[in-house]
Amino acid sequence: MHNRISRWAGLAVGGVLLALAACAADDTGAPEAPFACLAPPALSRPLTFANACPGDPDFPTVVEADGRDVFIRLPKDRVCQRGLSVNGAGNVWIQGGAFLYTESGKAVISISRTSGTSFIEGLGIDVAGKSADAIRVYRNTGRLIVQNTFARRISGQPAGIHGDLVHAQGDGPLQELVLQNVTGYTGYQGLFTPYRPESGHGARAVRLERVNVAYDPALNRNAGAGKPLMLLFFGSADDLGDRPPDLGTTLAGVYVDASFWNQPFGRAIYPRPKALFGRCIGFDEAHGISGRVCEGPPPGGDFAPEAWVGTGYQRSRFCGPEAAPAAAAGGPVGR
């Protein structure tokens, strides 16, 4: 969440770029190497909250971990309505569950003051047109992995605060941000991770694998969206204020759909693309971005279908045999 309205990067895709040859393989946006889901972190004696929503008895909406690991399994029989914050944890694992956000806070999921691995999987997040991020981290110098997750109706205020799909805030930066099998529909902004060394904002390394983001048709000028901002905002080597991740960005199977606002999809990406390859674009090597971004929805549909996540989440649909939370077994419930 941020008050700064993102600048539009000028985009000039002219006749020279259109004349570049494009082969069919470059058009697909498919991962260039075999894709494998990352495993959840190993947890040691975690605080455990199982089959409950934030705000239920013994499950506070703000979990103060005091350095301990945290395991959260959200319920399969109902949708949660309050946001969740985890502060001061070692490693964090949040699994499954759905949110229909009814509060006025700045994020549905917030993880702060940690240097461990935060692993979020299987969530269905409906921000419900609120001025809030779906997922954010703050004062986080660890690793954030968002996997098999769908978010929609991310909104905000045209002249001020607006929400993001994932926002890496200040006093970090994240050492690495990884998104695998993630789908986001937003009325404002998608991924916002520019690296600002002076404030610790953003991430030093970013990896996106099977990620699609789009402007949300449920949020238009009359329903919470004043104008479209960036769907992918990595930062630019030409921008002293918003740098790209200094350890690089890797893209595989990444799609951007700006069609709801009738604009070229390259205008929804920062830094500015260098070359056009059919329906995909690449970047100047100065930005440290390996891979391409392709136009429109993925040919096979959302990488994280809404029906496959949330209360009905099964990890095996995305990642093979479902991983059992062995590390959390027998752990304490609540505090």
3D structure, described in words:
This protein has 335 residues and is mainly beta. It contains 3 helices and 22 strands. It has helices at residues 15-18, 24-27, 316-319; strands at residues 47-50, 62-64, 70-73, 84-87, 92-95, 98-100, 107-114, 117-121, 124-126, 133-140, 143-154, 166-168, 176-186, 191-192, 206-215, 232-233, 249-257, 269-270, 275-277, 280-282, 289-290, 293-295. Strands 1, 3, 5, 6, 8, 9, 11, 13, 15, 17, 19, 20, 21 and 22 form a 14-stranded mixed β-sheet that branches. An 8-stranded parallel β-sheet has the order 2-4-7-10-12-14-16-18, with no helix packed on it. Residues 2-26 and 322-335 have low confidence and may be disordered.
Name the features.
disordered C terminus, about 325 residues, about 5% helix, eight-stranded parallel beta sheet, 14-stranded mixed beta sheet
List the helices and strands and how they pair.
Layout: H1 15-18, H2 24-27, E1 47-50, E2 62-64, E3 70-73, E4 84-87, E5 92-95, E6 98-100, E7 107-114, E8 117-121, E9 124-126, E10 133-140, E11 143-154, E12 166-168, E13 176-186, E14 191-192, E15 206-215, E16 232-233, E17 249-257, E18 269-270, E19 275-277, E20 280-282, E21 289-290, E22 293-295, H3 316-319
Parallel strand pairs: 1-3, 2-4, 3-5, 4-7, 5-8, 6-9, 7-10, 8-11, 9-11, 10-12, 11-13, 12-14, 13-15, 14-16, 15-17, 16-18, 17-21, 17-22
Antiparallel strand pairs: 19-20, 20-22
